Automatic annotation (TrEMBL):
Sequence intervals crossing the membrane: 80-99
Superkingdom of origin: Bacteria
Organism expressing this protein natively: Hyunsoonleella aestuarii
Protein name from the UniProt record: Uncharacterized protein
Protein keywords: Membrane, Transmembrane, Transmembrane helix
Amino acid sequence: MKTKKIHNIESTGFKTPSGYFDSLEKNILDKIDIENTSLPKKTGFDVPDSYLNNIEDTISEKVFGKKKIQVVSIFSTKNFIYTSSIAAAIILLISLSIFKTQPSFGNLDTESVKNYIISESISPYEIGSLLNDDELNEKEFVDLNLENESIEAYLLNNFDIEDLMIE
């Protein structure tokens, strides 16, 4: 096949006669006689005087129109009064005492507090750090009736017997 040797071809295959481009312009002008042809001398399109001087103004008038754009200021007194009254109303609603509810512990069960302390594994030292000296009065503990069995069970579960023995 001939296509296999295409990469070896060095000539383009196009040939022109010698001196063809030297006399090309003269040959074309000889065939077209400008003066004797019936071509018009003017194109028929005229630009009015000072047209290009005023074109920018004319286009901007047509695009944007002659209307003045009304500018509204954001920081007018009317807007300031309106927004400040809304802010004052919100602050007033937040600061009203009807929204301030105090939690009550009157209906809280002792058993649920015990379960919470056990489930969260809060140590007695953490509870003691929350109480101040005024809350740890002796009067609070005098009225508490503890049985000997519950005291023994507490001591056995929480302390080593060897620490409690008196020599």
